[in-house]
Amino acid sequence: MKGTLSLLLKTLLLKNNYRLDFKELEFQLLSHPSYPSLYAVTSVLEHFGVENLALEVPTDMQTLQQLPVTFLSVTNSRELVLVEKLDSGVKLTFNGNTVPKRFGYQDFLEIWSGMALGIEEGVNGRRDGKVASNWIPQVFLLISIVIPIILFLNSLPDLFQASHFFAGLVGLFISILIVRHELGSQSGLMNRFCNAYDSTSCDALLKSKGAMVLHLFKLSDACVVYFSVTTFSWVIYVAFGYYGGVFPVLSLLGLPVIMYSLYYQYYVMKKWCPLCLGISVVLFVQAITVLFTKDEWIGKLDFSETLILLFSAISIITVWAFIRPLLSAKRKFAELKIEHHRFKRNFDLFQSAHSKSTSYSTQLANFNTKEIILGNPNGKISLVLVTSPLCIYCKTAHSELEAILDQYPKDICLTIRFNIPTNDSANIGFKVANRLNELFLFEGDSENF
Fold it and tell me: Cα(71)–Cα(83) distance, rounded to whole angstroms?
């Protein structure tokens, strides 16, 4: 299962009191050329400045007791696994299946390769790296949910209206989870829910032919549209004083859908999809709510209610037809971005291209003592930054090189050279560069410049 290694690493960091930008962490891990491997994990931890140590140790009880409570390891079958030591054994979470399994100490030692990756415990929940702030979209999402509920409850609905409306909200929530799962959104809780037993798998059904309706659209899209339409229609109905007599008919029509879903999962796929079962339960509850209705809906359908339902359906389908491709395109772009950065970070390709390129000396014999040199002048790696004080696009390069210097101050020698017109002393770029050189040569050194 793609992305589960990032969930294991996230769990390891959280249990050791780290709070990072986990979206960036997942991207760095998935785009690493060695993914999935222990080396990729150590590289990502170093990228975030998390002290870590990977060792191959003897596979005995005494050594195991000396290891951290939580660490990453590799089994004899080369599977990456998160190990959490307990009083009577260990809890293992395997890469590809986030449902943990318990092993006795002796059973674990038999499958353990001896590889262990531990990290230094964070202090007071320290935050390393930039933590993404995503509370604004969550606030707007909460408001968009709360307002319709308040409008609905303000109309003092009866038992049928309330039970059908809130069941529809649950169905809409499950439908959104299904779409997120299809789009590759990873969640430890959701993965455990979908793969709780050997007989359960959301992927098995959602990726099957049975997940398509008439070969035109996915079952997940139908669920989102249906429950969005019912929820939106209910708000309009109660706002204008309609009873909602069209919904008992729709609810009873959902019973054949339940039967088909259960038949397909049990006899065809021979796997149960917990999310799909959740949709079936919601449809069944909505069908049961017919028992709470008034008899006035029997034998007649209000024309105005039907028009409102059609208006809601057309509106929701139009909006979803616009949003769904954007979500799919966003997913494809994210995958392409990961592949692009994995290609860029492939050291073997870089080394091959570098060995075939022409080398030029970067030394300036008459100016070596007059240049801005940061880091260690005798460092193993020499970098030359050609920049301009007026270059807007050079900001990113300066920030990245500053981060590299902070991480490897003894290994990097960074020389800064300015690409400016030297024959125009009135040029603002010339004045800024000249002043920077003056400050470095006469008032500072590479440590306080």
Answer: 5
